[in-house]
Amino acid sequence: MAGKKITCLSCGQTNAVPFDKLAAGPKCGKCKAALMPDAPVDVDLATLVKAAQTDDVPLVVDFWAPWCGPCKMMGPEFAKAAGALKGQARLIKVDTQKHQSAGQRYGIRGIPTMVAFKGGREVKRQSGAVSAGAITDWAKGL
Asked: What b/e readout covers 26-43, taking b as 16+ CB neighbours within 10 angstroms?
């Protein structure tokens, strides 16, 4: 039974989770937070960097800002997609207004922008607001 490395989005601890337990609600061994939440989690740059570099599970990041109209429209859709992808990918959000260095580090030119990481590297990106179904389809190709 192969294990997957997953960074806790709450405390930053790296956890090993058996592949067959990913959809069963695994919790962090240190802080007991959900490792595969069914809703997007807001993170800072340090957490994003660690998860993007460490995790064996695909990570989909929504770079957004609270003043952005399309971002506000996509937020509920991103949340629906997180529930649909539970156990297959983790969806997180980074507020580019609050964490400006994150947008700079990842070359975000427009928001909302989704970036997918797998195996420690960026594998694809898409800009613009999209529906939950489109997000799910886009992420299932990871």
From this structure: bebeeeeebbbbeebbeb
